[in-house]
Every structure is written in C-alpha cells, then in structure tokens.
Amino acid sequence: MAETMELVPDATDPKTYYLNMGPQHPSTHGVLRIRLHLEGERILGADPIIGYGHRAHEKMAENRDYLQFLPNSSRVDYLSGMIYNLAYCQAIEHAIELDVPERAEVIRIICGELNRISSHLLWLGTFVLDLGGFTPFLYGFDDREKILDILDSITGSRLTYCYGRFGGVTMDVDDEFLRRTSDFCDYFKRRLGEFDELVTDNVIYQQRTKDVGVISSDLIQDYALSGPVLRAAGVAHDVRKTEPYGGYDRFDFDVPVGQRGGDCFDRHTVRMEEMRQSLRIIDQALACLPDGPIMAAKVPKRIRPPAGDHYFAVESARGHFGMFITSDGTDIPVRHKLRTPSFVNVSTMPVVLPGTMLADTVAILGSIDIVVPEIDR
Amino acid sequence: MTDFPQIFGGHWPGVLAATVAIMGFITVNALMLIWLERKVSARIQRRYGPTEVGPFGLLQTLMDVVKLIGKELVTPDHVHRPLYLIAPVLVFAPLLALLSLIPIDEGWIFHDYDIALVLLLAFSSLNIIGIFAAGWGSNNKYALLGAVRAVAQNISYEIPLLLAVIPIVIMTRSLSLHEIASAQAAYPFILVQPLAAIIYFIAGTAETNRAPFDIPEAESELVAGFHTEYSGMRFGVFFLAEFTHMVIICSVATILFLGGWHGPLLPGWLWFFLKVYGLILVMMWFRWTFPRLRFDQLMSFAWMILVPLALVNLLVTTVVLKL
Amino acid sequence: MLKQTLTGARSLLTGMKVTFKNAFKKPVTSQYPRERIEMSQAYRNVIVLVEKEDVGSHDCIDCGMCERVCPSFCIKVEGERPEGMKRKRATRFEVDFALCSECGLCLDVCPTDTLGYSREFDQAGYGRNDFLYDLLIPYRDREETVRDTLRAAEAEAAAAKKAAVAKKAAAKKAAEEKDAAGDEAPGGDGDDS
Q1: What does the H/E/C string look like for chain C?
Q2: Could you tell me the residue range of the domain that residue B169 belongs to?
Q3: Which of A156, A161, B232, C187 has the fewest CB atoms within 10 Å, i.e. is most exposed?
Q4: Which CATH architecture has domain A57-369?
C-alpha cells in the first residue's frame, strides 16, 4: 500500500498524467476521490482516497449508551437506512438474547425488503445516469418515491427511519399499509419489465457494461467482497440464506448469480433479479403476517450486553453488513466496529480499474454501488 | 431567383438586414429550443418543466440568459488567454454563415450558391476548431480530454455524413440546396434513400455532440468537457451554438431527404419549419432515452458500421442510376 | 454483424417506445408552494408538548427522561414544584431542532406521553438559533389556572386516597371523611371561575 499512498505523485513521465476525480465530481456519488493515473484515456493506476465524509460513527458509539446509537445506525448508509437500523436492533437483541414477537419480525422483513428495492432503484438510476442516460434515473426515483411514501406512513420518516427498537418496532402496520404495499408489488412487477425494455435490453447500455470491470471470484476471495458484487461473480452467497437471521429462513426466495463472470452487466442483472426476489419475499410476508404484539414483553430498561465480543451480520442492499460490539458489561460499548460492504468493495478499485478507459471508471464505480458515507462512516 | 438582398433593396442594406434577421432568428430559436428541450425532457420524465415565467414557462430561458449576461465573466488564472477568449466566437461564427445558405421556401434564400452543400459541410466542420481551442486554452485536464474527444468524433463522423450526402448529389446532379429541394416536388428522397437518411441523421447527431454521442461534454465523466472552465455568457454562447447547430443539421436533413418546403395545403415555409422542428424533437427524444456510448465504441461505430453501410449505399445508388 | 446491428436498432426503438409512452402520462411532480402534500399520520418533525385532556394543558412533569435519553443532547427541561403540589411542572422546555435527529426516543421514554410530533414540514430560518423552539409557549398564558386546577385535583385525589385509607382502617370514620372531601372539591372549582 505504501507506494500507492504517496501524496505527491511522480509526474516526471510526460506521456502520462494524474487526474483527480473527486471529491467534487458528478459521478463519484458524494465525496469519494479517486486519483487516476492516465495515459490518454487509458487508466494506468487508481487510488481511491477516502475520508471526506467521515462522521466518526464508531467513535460516537463509544460515547453513548446502546439506545442512543440507534439514530446513528440508519445514517451509516442512508440509502438502506431501514436495513441498517433493524440490523443494529437485531445485533443488540442477539447480544442480550431478547426474543422478538413474530409479527414484529415479519414487519421488519417487509420494511427491510421495501428498503432494499428502493436502494436498488436508486442504484439503477444513478448507474444509468453515470452512463449518460437521464430518464431511467427519474423513473427510478419516481418508483422509489412510492416506497418512501409507504414507509413514511408507518415510520414517519423517509430516509433515516429509526423504526426499530430493541425488541420490536415502534409502530404497528395497518390495513392501509398492507394494501398499499401489495398494490406497489403488483405495480412494480410490471414496472420492472419497463426498466428491462428501457435499460437492460438497450444495446448501448449492454455495450457499456458487458465485459467491463470484471471482478472475478479470485479477487473476491482476496478482498472479501460481498453482496451483489459477489453474487455477480457467480458465488451464491447471501447472508439471508447462509446464516438466516430475523426469520428469513421462513421465506422462499432464490439467490441470483451472474452468468458472465462478474462484469458490470452481471451486477446489473443480479440487482434486477434481487428486486424481483424481494417482491417475492414481500408477497409471502404479506400473506402470512401474524397477529400479535409488535414489542417484546420484557425489554430490559438498561441494555447491558454480557461482557465479551458480539458479532451480528445482515445482508444489506450493498452486501455483508456486520457489527462487532465489544462489551464490558456496562451501558456503553467498549468498541463498536461497523463492517460496511462499500468500504470493502471500493478497496478493489486499484486492481479493477487499471487497463480500462476513463469512461469505464464511472461505470465500474457505479456498478459496485458505493455509498460514500458508508465507506467513511 | 430573388434573393434577400434584392428584397431589401440594394446590396449592402440587404446584407445588413439579413444578418440582423439571422442573428435574431438564432437567438429566438435557441431560446425556444432550450425551452422545448426542457419541456420535452420534463414530459418524458413525467415532470412539468418550467412553468413559472411567462405562459407555460416560455420566458424562462430568456430570464436564464439575462442571468447569464449579468454574471461576472470569470477568466481562470491558468488559461491561455487568447485561445480561451476567442474560442466561443470561433464556435459560433461559422454557424452564422451557415444559416444564410438554407432555403426556407421556393426562392426564399439569402444567397443561392452553386456549391452550397460543400460550403455547408466545410463550415459546419469549422466549429470544431473553436471547441478544440476552448479545450486547449482552458488548460484543464477535463476540458482537454473533452476537446480531444470532440475532434476525433467530429472528424470520424464527417465521413459517413459526406458519404450519406453524395448519393443525393449524384441523383440530382447538383450541389445547390435550392435545386436539391426543388427536385423533390414529387416525392421526398427519404423514400429512395432511407439508409442514407438514417446514416445522415445519426452522423448529424454526432456532429452536434448530442446524446447519445455527447462524449465531449459527458458530464458524468468529464464534468462539463470542453466548456468546464467557461461561465456566464461565454458558456451561453456554447449553448447557443449547440442549438443552432441542431437547427442547421436538421434543416439540411429536411432539404436533402424530406423534400424541403414541399408539402400539401400548408405554405412552404411552414412545412419546412414543421419538418425541421419535428427532426429536432426526435433528436431530443434520443437524448432523453439513451445512455452515452463510450469513446472507443463511438469510433468503431462510425468506422465499422456507418462508413461501410454508407459506402454500400453509395455503390448501390450509382449502379442503379447507371442502369 | 448485420444481425447485431438490427437487434441493436430494435432495442433502441423499444427504449424510445417506453419514453414515448411515458411522455403522455400525467406528471408526478407536486407543485410545492401551490399544492401542499398531506403528511402521513406518523410523520416526524420537531417534538411538541401535546395537550392532555385530563390536565387541560401539557403534562410535562420535568422528569428529565427525554433530556437524558436524547442522543443529540438537544432537549433542555427545567421545572419546579408549585406550592402545595406534589407533582412538578415544567417551567422551561426548549428543543434545539438544529441538533435534533428525529429519532423519537424521547417519545418512547416519556412517562406521561405528553410529547408528540409537530405536523409542520417546511421550517426555514437564517441561522441555527432560529430553530430553538420553546415548547411551552402555547401553554404559558394558562399555566396559573392549570396549576390551580391540578392543585385542586391533587388535593381531591389525596383526600380520596386518604378517605380510602381511612375507610380501610376504620369503617366508622369513613362517612365523615367523605363529607370533607365533598366540601373541598367545590371549593377548588370556585377558584377556577
């Protein structure tokens, strides 16, 4: 790493030059900076330089009790805030061995999958926007808006939900919510076909993504990648399947894998298919939503996980999101490490980017679906 | 043949009046086109677009121009000043000359040159010098990359453009736009030359640097491409040039393939403008539907698909005409 | 090669068909200053003190739970015990909305459920001090009367309790105590009017 991290690049070669892509650049999805070493349009080297969006979430966790970290959890990755928020609740429940009522579990799954679809929709929009197509971006936002409205009706918030509590969820769902959700599922199944016509089948889109930015399974093992990037390379690994949590083992869904060896188009098809699978899960969950309480009967007033290490992982929209909590038995964690998938995924960039064209950089960066605040935390 | 100078009585007053008329047309046209583009994109994306200023937001772009004019013209420190300052003019000026070549109706032409088509193709390639000057003079890596791409793209797409035009020239045995349009009284040439028309239109879209061929600007890769360092009305001039260029490409397409002013019932000039703006709408429709090609794919598309197709088309045309 | 080109061209036309169809659908934008969206029932904004019917005002007892649980440390509560009353009343309840992250933990812990969410959604200001909300403002002017009512009610309740205790202790004395309670309650009402 030492040689790639030098701050003043060697600029003696007159044929090559350095280009700072970011931190202010339309396609770095926030404040990621990539220092590209270019020869013409061809990339010789790439160093992601991160930290511009650092908010010290992990340090904040060490300064407040477990409950007070709750609003932070959905801000780690604001595009799948629900999943992260619920993941934190589940992690603590796991640590203090608190059982969640079944109804709350199913509600959590519905909300989590809705959130996954909305995150993938935003990815689809921004990815096509990176490739120069404006319209799918707004279509994606239009549909995402419908999801946000649905989630808003029970959580009261549109982005940073803070919906879960240790032992359940804050608000019960009503018939209106269930009806809107199932309406959305029906609508969205048709809508995905439209996205396929507009984006997936488009010859320009295919040219831009096929055989571009191949992240092979070897590389994935070296870097411990996860999520759609991993599945695109042909590895059927999904935390929801391999280590089921929160009641996912009750539902029937497939883990889509890429067919082309892990290029950008694979990552696209995997995500499109994941949205369909999420719809499947939601359909099943709506059908089997049990009655009952939404909060566990006995939630301890003070959360004090037993001393020791606790680890809990979920499948977020971007991959394996893990929380490593070291507790000394008090109210405040000693260490709260967040294992965020974007951080791991973006770390392959120095290997994947060289040899591609400048225009592919935005395609590859877009296809691994980074959320910069999640990288920096 | 009456040309404009005669209409306005005498040579020089006529030239002056026509120039003013063209300048006025360019401005109004660009304003309306920008409004139209925003409305079309809005409708396609299920938005409203501008609605606030004037009826249907028609005056929105006028207000934007007022804002652009009111802005300070920032000249960055590290630019090559002469090139940087002259570039917008170089981009814009050839287009001014080009509009004078377009016949709008039977006999409605500023001046009918025998070699109008050659002149037109020559002049429309000139503005690439301006674009390159802008990119080079800006002394910015994004701008330079955009300029390099623009030059490569324009040179590549000149060839299919020319090859698509030549069959028409062979058929009409004329390089005068007025005569070519007049020859289509019976039927528009798109019926006999559909392939040439499509190739011309694709290459023309690439010539104007519009999506899906907008790689010189490519805002998601190159921020703003060759005009990254321009602000205020200097940037406005680039914008004006782009929309004027669109009008020219579409006017020529109308004259070469769609029969110019010929059409039933309506007066000729109205037909002409209907066709031109119809084509422009299609161009906008392209832009708001497709993603952008990559640079190398763009080049191979020109050289591997468009040029061979155009050559085959040319060959078939000559053979058929000989028979 | 030709076949590729043709399928490619067809895919482009399909894409154009999709955008064309969408161009004639109704726009989804809501024209904000002219139309205002109805916020959902669960909508979360800055917290407010909810009027409780049995009190006729907010019921903040200055327990400090919200102040302690707030992860953003944006709530400041102060209170006093009014003379002759057991329960405390808040004298200052300020929220710095610029710091608030709208997590809703304060609502969860509130023992009297007197916290709720505001229905506003378009607050704007020129500086962060514009978002210092004093939640007691709507209740200030009637605080004295409310206290009187509460004091009376407390006295009544205390009397009733006393009565109950007394009743339990000695059934004989019960009747007398009840009379005394009956005397006091109208007296409290008299103070109100």
Answers
A1: CHHHHHHHHHHHHHHHHHHHHHHCCCCCCCCCCCCCCCCCCCCCCCEEECCECCCCECCCCCCCHHHHHCCCCCEEEEEECCCCCCCCEEEEEEEECCCCCCCCHHHHHCCCCCEEECCCCCCCCCCHHHHEEECCHHHHHHHHHHHHHHHHHHHHHHHHHHHHHHHHHCCCCHHHHHHHHHHHHHHHHHHHC
A2: 76-322
A3: C187
A4: Orthogonal Bundle (1.10)
Give the pLDDT confidence score for residue C181 in this predicted structure: 60
Contact A255, A237 (CB under 8 A): yes
> How far is C16 from chain A, CA to nearest CA, in Å?
8
Q: Is the CB of A198 inside 8 Å of chain B's CB atoms?
A: yes
Domain boundaries, chain C: 47-142
Q: Which chains pack against B, by 3+ Cβ pairs within 8 A?
A: A, C
For residue A128, give the 3-state DSSP assignment: helix
CATH class assigned to C47-142: alpha beta
Q: Using H for helix, E for strand and C for coil, what is the string for A335-352?
A: EEEEECHHHHHHCCHHHH
* Share above pLDDT 70 across residues of chain A, in percent, rounded to a whole number: 96
Of the candidates A26, A128, A138, which has its C-beta nearest B219's C-beta? Answer: A26
pLDDT for C91 equals: 83
Chain segment C49-106, per-residue pLDDT in tens:
888 777 777 788 888 888 888 888 888 888 888 777 777 888 888 888 888 888 888 8
Q: Where are the domains of chain A?
A: 2-49, 57-369
8 Å CB contact between A180 and A214: no
pLDDT for A127-181, tens place per residue? Answer: 888 888 888 888 888 889 889 888 888 888 888 888 888 888 888 888 888 888 9
Q: Tell me the longest C-alpha to C-alpha distance in chain A.
A: 71
Using alpha carbons only, what angle is made at residue C144 by residues C138 and C147, rounded to the nearest 5 degrees? 100
Collapsing DSSP to helix, strand or coil, A217 comes out as helix
Q: Using the 8-state DSSP alphabet, how is residue A305 labeled?
A: P
Query: What's the pTM value of the predicted model, to 2 decimals?
Result: 0.83
Asked whether the beta carbons of residue A171 and residue C42 sit closer than 8 angstroms, the reply is yes
In chain B, how many domains are there? Answer: 1
